[in-house]
Amino acid sequence: MRTYETVFILDPDLTEDDTEKAINRIQTVIEGQKGRIVLLDNWGKRKLAYRIKKKVKGNYVLIVYYGEPKSVAVLERNLKIMEEVLKFLTINLAATEIDIATEEKKEEERKLAEPNGTGDGATAVSESVPEKDDTQEESSDDDQADVPAEPEE
C-alpha cells in the first residue's frame, strides 16, 4: 500500500452536521477500498486564494491515508460527484510501498519495549544526525591550484 495525502475544500455555508456527514462519507469511501486513515485534520474555514464557485471562503480538510492506487481513483470520483466539495488535491507521499501488517507489528513491539510498560506511545524517536566538526576545516590554499599558471617566456 502507498501513503497518500488528500486536501479538499468544502462549501463554507454547510452546517456542522453536513460538514461531518461529508467527511464521514469520504472516510467510508477510503475504508471501503481497504484503506487505512492515518490522520484526519479539519483546518476549519479559511479564505481562498481566489473565488471558487462564487465562494470566498472554504472549509479545509486534510486526510493522510494508506491505500492502493485504484482507491485514489474511486475517492477522487466521489469527490467530483459531491456538491459540497469545491476543490481537492491528492498527492503520493511515500515513494515506496508500505505493508500495513508489518508496520502495525512494529508499532506494537515498540509499545511493549517501552521501559515503563504503559504502552501509551509517548516515547520520542530521535534520529542521529552527524554533527560537523569545526576543528577540521579545509584550508583555502587548494583554491589557487585551479588557476592556470602563466606561461614563462
General description of the model:
The structure is a single chain. By secondary structure, the protein is α+β, with helices and mostly antiparallel strands. The chain has a domain at 2-92: Ribosomal protein S6/Translation elongation factor EF1B (Alpha-Beta Plaits). It contains three helices and four strands. It has helices at 16-32, 69-81, 100-112; strands at residues 2-10, 36-52, 55-67, 85-92. It has a four-stranded antiparallel sheet with strand order 2-3-1-4, covered by helices on one side. A hairpin with a 2-residue loop joins strand 2 (36-52) and strand 3. The longest helix is centred in the first third of the chain and has 17 residues, at 16-32. Residues 119-140 have low confidence and may be disordered.
